[in-house]
Amino acid sequence: MTAIQESNIVRLPRGVRLREDKRRGGWVLLAPERVFQLDGIAQAVVGQVDGERSVGTIIDRLCETYQAPRERIAQDVTAMFAGLVEKRVLEVA
Amino acid sequence: MTHSQAHDVQPPMGMLAELTHRCPLQCPYCSNPVALERRRHELDTATWRRVFAEAAELGVLQVHLSGGEPALRPDLPELVAACVDAGLYSNLITAGVNIDRARLETLAEAGLDHVQLSFQGATPEVTDHVANMTGAHARKRAFAAEVTAVGLPLTLNAVIHRINLHQIDDFVDLAVELGARRLEIAHAQYYGWALVNRAALMPSREQVMEAVERVEAGRERLQGRLVIDAVVPDYHARLPKPCMNGWGRQSLNVTPSGKVLPCHAAETIPHLAFWNVADHALGDIWYDSPAFNAYRGTDWMPEICQSCERKEIDWAGCRCQALMLTGDAAQMDPVCEKSPYHDEVQTLAVRDALGVPDFTYRRFARTTEGA
Question: Which GO terms describe its molecular function (chain B) (predicted)?
Fold first, then answer.
């Protein structure tokens, strides 16, 4: 499993796009010959990825929105990003 | 939603757009039908543009621009742009032997999202032999380098069978060397041309087991660097493949002349009538055409499937294969160990694996009509 540091800047690689799925509702991550249907939390996290923000900044921003301990949010976010990096739909800049 | 929803039909996610059946390669397992559609019957640019817009409206997210060789269509960049305009993710499925750098850049600028490049072998000897085209391998390698240089994500696709099955490790290395993010290792599926060539392609059970191990080893070796997706072999299995993840459930296929099929082999089922985009809106075809509703859901299944806990996992397997091997498209896929035909299929696989015939290469039939 790839370790994600809070100082890392993550981005969606070319060929991966986040978009709304109006017909079915919700948001999807479109990747080479695969579609990831995101739940509300995944959408909120991936929606923060802009290729400029660090993982730490993304966690801070999510802390403002969600009333949960920072440690817990940090754990969830880094685990989610590590999983997406593994699937080659997210990359560390 | 005004369409009939008797089966609680979900909208499709993906669409395979076969832009042409013309191709410079002659792979003996081609997924196109043995009766190829000719150039003069191909849909024009405006019709494809309409089809892409209707597909997006219907709920399709990804379009796979395929063929034949889609790059033989001079209007390919316009078709990519039409996908982009409709908000669709565009994937080019190509043999990579006839796209130069300038054309590739035009496609990238038009908004192409991804390239899937086929390799018939991991070495020049095997690729050129299987594709029946001298120099094909070298051209593909050069094209792969251009794809990554332009910055487009690349998937390598390798259809494997008895002739190239020993090259799995080499395909993995080739994918890494060429900078692919993803590798598809797909066992040949025996429809159309591959059915004609089954005795020249069928691997032995031992080879299939070895292949599964090599794919798994490659995955472990390159975890996080290369995604390896595998399409499982069929005849030697105990359980059927969940063909298309269910008939008319997630995807549709539009042929060069505009016929809309639940899968690319569906025309082998002779009693089904396929509606054409020239006569019907894509949404009407998806929800209301008899062909799409013929094997939707589970109601049509034989009793033994209906009472099976895997009915919504396997979807009773493949309709075309059921027809081909049992004479009845509404039978369970005979690959399933619960099928009365299961032993027959296994025997047939073992027999074909011993075959030594030459390939019958994929070509347009000779005719006085011309292409």
Answer: 4 iron, 4 sulfur cluster binding; cyclase activity; iron ion binding; oxidoreductase activity; S-adenosyl-L-methionine binding
**Burial class of residue B35 in the structure, from the number of CB atoms within 10 Å of its CB (0-12 exposed, 13-18 middle, 19+ buried):** exposed
Taking Cα atoms as reference points, which of B367, B116, B354, B330 lies closest to residue B229?
B116
- For the question of whether the overall pTM of this predicted structure is more than 0.90, the answer is yes
CB contact under 8 A, A17 and B89: yes
Instruction: Compute the distance between CA of residue A56 and CA of residue A77 in angstroms, rounded to an integer.
Output: 10
Q: Which amino acid would we find at residue B138?
A: A
Q: Which residues of B are annotated as a binding site for [4Fe-4S] cluster?
A: 23, 27, 30
pLDDT in tens, B285-329: 999 999 999 999 999 999 999 999 999 999 999 999 999 899 999
Q: Is residue A4 part of a domain?
A: no
Q: Residue A58: which domain range?
A: 10-87
What mean pLDDT comes out for the span A33-42?
Answer: 93
Sole residue written with tokens 């070796």? B221
**What's the structural domain count of chain B?**
1
Whether ipTM > 0.95 holds is no
B153 and A86 within 8 Å at the Cβ level: the answer is: no
Domain containing residue B103: CATH number: 3.20.20.70
Question: Of the candidates B89, B152, B223, which has its C-beta nearest A86's C-beta?
Answer: B223
